[in-house]
Design brief:
With 115 residues, this protein is mainly α. It has one domain. The protein is 84% helix and 0% strand. It is built from 5 helices and no strands. Helix 1 packs parallel to helix 4 and helix 3 packs antiparallel against helix 4. It is elongated, with a radius of gyration of 19 Å. The mean pLDDT is 88.
């Protein structure tokens, strides 16, 4: 469920950014850049969001693991395999959101933007 919520939140952030810069994307399309180039551009932005969001979340997770272990006495380990799995899921989550937010750019007509 957290994965789906994450996709929705990142989608809203990327969609808002795409909407705010739609004229710039339309200009790039008018200059001859392909939809694939715009896809790579938005995917790079979503990758940057995933990295910038993962690092503070990892710190918060380590603190919460430590607090939970201290409070309950349960053994809680945040191993490198779990960190890698979470990082890959974070990248996948942001890539899905980036792909969904790209539809607005692909449907943008450069002639309509500047009317």
């Amino acid at each position: 469920m957290g994965f789906i919520v994450g996709v929705v939140i990142v989608y809203q952030v990327l969609y808002k950014d795409v909407s705010d810069h739609l004229a710039e994307y339309a200009t790039l399309k008018a200059m001859g850049y392909s939809n694939f180039y715009l896809f790579k551009l938005i995917l790079q932005e979503s990758l940057l969001l995933s990295i910038c969001g993962f690092l503070p979340a990892l710190l918060a997770c380590a603190i919460l693991y430590n607090l939970t272990q201290s409070a309950t006495g349960l053994i809680m380990e945040l191993g490198s395999d779990r960190i890698l799995q979470l990082f890959l899921l974070t990248i996948a989550m942001c890539a899905i959101s980036g792909t969904l937010s790209l539809r607005k750019v692909q449907n943008a007509d450069p002639a309509e933007i500047f009317d």
